[in-house]
Amino acid sequence: MAGVKKSVTYLLIVALFGIIIYQNPFCCTSVYSQETELKYIKQLGMKGIEKGRFTSPHSLAVDNLGNIYVGDTGNKRIQKFSPNGTFLTSWGSEGTGDGQFLGLHDVTVDPEGKFVYTVELKNHRVQKFDPKGTFITKWGFNGTGDRDFMRAPHQIAVNSLGKVFLTDSNGNQILKFYDNGTFIGTLGSKGVGPGQFNTPHGIAIDANDNIYVTDMKNYRVQVFDSKDTFVRQWGSLGTGSGQFSETVPGIAIDSNNRVYVVDKINSRVQLFDNTGNYLSSWGSDGKGPQQLHKPEDIAVNDEGEDIYITDTRNSRVQILQVIE
Question: In this structure, which of 34, 167, 196, 212 has its CB flanked by the most CB atoms within 10 Å?
Answer without folding.
Answer: 167
